[in-house]
Amino acid sequence: MTTSLPERAGRRCHNALNPLHSSHYFSPDLGRELAAVGIDDPNGAYFAARSAAMGPVGAGVVTATFYNFRHELVARHVPAVWETAAPSVVLAARARAVDATLRRLLGEEAVASKEVAEAAELALRATEACVRTARPLYAAHADLPVPDEPHLALWHAATLLREHRGDGHLAVLLDAGLDPVEALVSHTATGKGMAPAWAQRTRGWTRDDWDAAAGRLRERGLLDADGELTEAGTALRAEIEDETDRLDRAPYEHLGATRVERLTELARGLAAIAAAAGAFPQGMIGKR
C-alpha cells in the first residue's frame, strides 16, 4: 500500500539517515579494523569497504559504480586489495568497525534505546520496496544478511537506502550529460557538497582535471567566470535532485507519510548526536 508523500519527504528522510551510514568511512575504527587484516591505505580501505559486497570485483566495476573517482586512483588499489583480504574478511572487519563507531558516537544508552530499535524497524520496512534492477551497489548490499542488533540493522537499512538512491542518481547524472568531474564541480558549487579541495584530494582528480571540467560547464552556460552556478546551472542541479527523488520514491511511499516523518525525526536526532561527537571532519562540506 502506498501513501502520497509531502514534497521532498523522501529526500529529507534520506538526508537524515545517510550520516548514520557514512560516518564509518571517516571513523578511526574502520582504519584500525582494516589495517588489522592488512589494508592500511585509507583509499584502499574505502574502496574495499564499500565494494566488498559485490565480491572480488576489478577496478572497472568500482569506477563505474562509485562514478566520481578517477579510475587511475581506483586501479592503484583494486583488484590488488582482494589479494590482501578477501571480500568476506573485509565485510566482517567493516561490521566490527560500524559497531564500534556507532557505540562511540551515539553512546551505549542510545544504541540500546527503543528509538534506535524503532528507527531500524521503520528503515527496514522502507527497504522492502527497493528494487535491484539497474542498481548494482544496492543489489549487492541487499544480498547481505540483516544484522540482529538494532543499531547494526539500522545501519544496514540506511546503507540499502543510500545505495538505492545513489544508483538512481548516477543514471540521472548520465542523462544530464555530467561526467564524473563535472558532477563534482557543479555539486560543490551549490555549497552543499564536498569542498573542492576535499573532493579533488579524495577522488583523485588533479587541478587541471578540475579546471577543465569547470571550463566545460562554463561553455554550457552552467557555471560563471567566478565558479558560481548560473541560473541554468542552479536549475539543472535542482532538476537532478528532483529526478533522483522520482526514481527513489518507492521505499518512502511504501513506508507512508506518517512513518517517513517519524523515521526522519528519529534519524535526525541520532545524526545530530553523531555529528556533535565528531563523526565528520571539519572543512569537508562547503564551497571553499
From TrEMBL:
Superkingdom as given in the UniProt entry: Bacteria
| Pfam families per the UniProt record, alphabetical | HTH_67 (PF21863)
Q: InterPro entries from the entry?
A: HTH_67
> What protein does this entry describe?
SalK
Name its species: Streptomyces poonensis
The root-end lineage is: Bacteria, Bacillati, Actinomycetota, Actinomycetes, Kitasatosporales
